[in-house]
Amino acid sequence: MPWPGRGHINPMMNLCKRLVLRDPNLHVTFVVTEEWLGLIGSDPKPDRIQFATLPNLIPSELGRANDFLGFIDAVHTRLEEPFERLLDRLNSPSPTVIIADTNVLWAVSVGTRRNIPVASLWTTSATILSLFLQSDLLQTHGHFPIEPSGSKEDEIVDYIPGLSPTRLGDLPQISHGFTHQAFNRFKPCFDQLSKAKYLLFPSVYELEPKAIDFFKSKFGFPVYSTGPLIPFDEVNNRSEPDYIKWLELQPKSSVLYISQGSFLSVSEAQMEEIVEGVRESRVRFIWVARGGESKLKEALEGSQGLVVSWCDQLRVLCHESVGGFWTHCGYNSTMEGIYSGKPMLTFPLFWDQSLNAKMIVDEWRIGMRIRSKKNAEVLIKRDEIKGLVKRFMDGESEEGKEMRRRVCDLSEICRRAVAKSGSSHVNIDAFIEDISKIV
Ligand SMILES: O=c1ccn([C@@H]2O[C@H](COP(=O)(O)OP(=O)(O)O[C@H]3O[C@H](CO)[C@@H](O)[C@H](O)[C@H]3O)[C@@H](O)[C@H]2O)c(=O)[nH]1
């Protein structure tokens, strides 16, 4: 049971594909709303993964970001009952295990009531989960609540097990505004976690050993890092959409791939600054517009780039003409950037993304930060964007070479993790073995 959002459905589906690939006896029922079935129902998948649907009782995916808090409430209150009815129908045989997104509040209690163990899949970094689970430590140390952009921003949070020392300003602002309200709604899900029977991460152990070790010692049940949960075995797809044809014609490492994810976007005024900054940098680009395609095309007319409404992101990133990735730092995008060996220009918007950006720039040292003002309509101006984009795409500078060398090393680490005997490969097998023992 995934959370009904692209950044959650993708890793859940990739996990399920990996599971059925490793175990020829495993069958998966993948539960989505009817709307989501329309969006992903025709994507290729193994026969042993079958969809089952819940009615469209939550706001549509198309307007999800307009009232995200209402969306969270709807998932938390309206889908439990139809999910139970679905379980009633799936009774011959009934499921051995429920794999549910950690954010699906009611999943653990449904499993407990029915005596079906629940494996909780957390779809972003283990590092941020360690913060969310121990947010009371912020309070103990006078860091909760804090004023946004206040004097404490540069103070270092170095007392949370699992979290490397981090500037307070790089953590999500869970004590204020929209993020605070979202956090309050998700907090009960974190509290439920201790009642699950397994915890799965979409991460690679070698990328976050400290946080994953923390969870292994915290919970009395198995914890597995299984990532990256991205579609790496589908990259060699033979189809040739127009954007791939266009990429074929561009010089090696010359193209900046720009995507702000599948969900939130920036203000119009900010968008205008970004468009002009990128245009004036004269860097080649491929830009995912998500909705405003024709407007963006018009604004960028005459520049050396391509605007698309959607693309096969991992395939684009893995193309040799792409030299860098402008990203909002959603965790799937972060893993895809690393796997493809592309440095990242980070522009986080919400939730876990600022901490992902911090890991990209400061811990893994595979990217540059777009340092933006917080809580302003225009976070960063066009001249700064222009300068930064040029610097970022310069593969000949010492910093550019170093960043690229490091991301190639991490790409290799991810590829090894999913290869035979790699850490994630071994963990997927261990999870299968563990759930096979359930009678
Ligand atoms: O043109 C596009 C654009 C995106 N994608 C895919 O869409 C997914 C986007 O996922 P992600 O990068 O994680 O972004 P969000 O959809 O914004 O993800 C939400 O969920 C993530 C996982 O919990 C969190 O890390 C984010 O903060 C949250 O916004 C990725 O698999 C991309 O490959 C495409 O395939 N084509």
From TrEMBL:
It holds the Pfam family UDPGT. GO terms for molecular function: quercetin 3-O-glucosyltransferase activity; quercetin 7-O-glucosyltransferase activity. The keyword Ribonucleoprotein does not apply. The keyword Cell membrane does not apply. Belongs to the UDP-glycosyltransferase family. PANTHER family: FLAVONOL 3-O-GLUCOSYLTRANSFERASE UGT76E12-RELATED, GLUCOSYL/GLUCURONOSYL TRANSFERASES. This is Glycosyltransferase.
